[in-house]
Large ribosomal subunit protein mL43
Amino acid sequence: MSHRHLFLKSGFLRAPHGLGIGRYVCQLQRVTLKFCKSHGTSMGMRHFIEHNLIHYAKENPGIVVYVKPRRHRHPVIVAEYLNGGRQWMDVANYNQEDIIKWMELLRTQIHDSASLRLRKLWHTEFPSIQGPWTPFFFKDPMINLVHFPNKEHGAAVKLTPTATEQLIQLFKAQQLQDNTANDSQDTERVETT
């Protein structure tokens, strides 16, 4: 059994402050592509740089892309985000399509969420002093003394008519108005003849 997860940073999932309130802000700030000009494991990275990098940079003007050649090293993608987080990926022997997919993933995610150990499954910044909500909060305590099944308490709660019922009522009222208008026109015709 592995205990690798114990050494991960712990925290809570949270969205960046203000993201999506005014407009979308891409959280990826900088991408550094490190590769070797002659090493065989960098072939996919070289193809990406030759054929797709200019198109990627034009589509994403808010992301700074650095290209750093290194001799006799595996290719690496280093992504830096607005919150200060860095994600490092070894892309040795990846083909061009795989690198395109990983670059798109790095662009669309907020940070390296895989390296974050969750402290709890749920979290709130503003905890309630009254305790968690339950469906029985605003129920009458006399329900505890009722013997079930009970028709009164077992009936569905229906406070207002649904939109479909309102449309049916409007349609029937319109038909009644049309019928009365037609009847009055028929009686006027009969009286005039």
User: Anything to note?
Assistant: The domain at 10-120 is CATH 3.40.30.10 (Glutaredoxin). The longest strand covers residues 28-35. Helices lie at 43-51, 53-59, 96-108, 151-154, 163-192. The chain has a mean pLDDT of 85.
